Each structure stands twice: as structure tokens, then as C-alpha cells.
Amino acid sequence: MANKPVAFYFEGFGGFVSVLGSMEQVPQKCVTRAAGKGATVIRRAIRSQAPVDTGALKRGIIREGERSRKKGKKVYKMMFDPTMNDVFQKPIKHPGAAGGSKKTDHAYPEVWH
């Protein structure tokens, strides 16, 4: 069998392209809300698979919105709640022994911002 060229004709394809172009102009409020709803679905899935010894792991998973200069963009990241550092971290036995300048009792700072 020989390969025969196939031609397609799309009726109304120009209208479809214009609709896609207009979707780029969505207000930031709509983008933020849609991204938040997607992040909530992901967070629920993560929490449903977390072990339930004390329940701290389920309570400690939060979402945080990423700040961007680009309009029309919103990203949420899943992270451990920094206010629950005392639950998720073991205290460092010898602070500053590895050459760190700050003498702290945790591996990372409690406030990340």
C-alpha cells in the first residue's frame, strides 16, 4: 500500500483560535481561584494517604501561593507548616558543630520568608 496524502479542512478553526486568544486575558481573580481549587484537590489527596498516628502530618500539610510578577499566573506549593517545626524536626544535638554561623536548635529557620 502506498502512503497517500490526506488533506483536512477545518470549518470555523479561525473562531477557535480567536477564542483561545481571548482566554489569555482572564482576570487574575479567576486564575487564582482556579489554581486554588486545583491545589485543594491535590492537598486532599496527599492528606488522605498520610498515616494517622497523631494526626499532626495531616494538619501540617499546607498550601502556599507563589508570588509572580507575571500577570495571569498563579502557582501553589504544598509544604509543611513552619509553625509546626517543633513537631516535624528533631533538635540538633550540637548546634554550630558543622560550621554554621548561627547557633540554632533546628535544621532550618522557622520563618522562610
Helix-strand sequence: HHHEEH
Counting DSSP H or I runs of 4 or more residues, the number of helices is 4
CA-to-CA gap between the ends? 65 Å
* Beta fraction: 5-15%
Keywords summarizing the entry:
113 residues, 4 helices, 36% helix
What's the topology here?
Blueprint: H1 13-22, H2 28-49, H3 56-60, E1 61-66, E2 75-80, H4 85-88
Antiparallel strand pairs: 1-2
Descriptive report:
The protein has 113 residues and is an alpha+beta fold. The protein is 36% helix and 11% strand. The protein contains 4 helices and 2 strands. The protein has a two-stranded antiparallel ribbon with strand order 1-2. Strand 1 (61-66) and strand 2 form a beta hairpin. The radius of gyration is 24 Å and the shape is elongated. The mean pLDDT is 77.
Explain briefly what this protein structure is.
The chain is an alpha+beta fold.
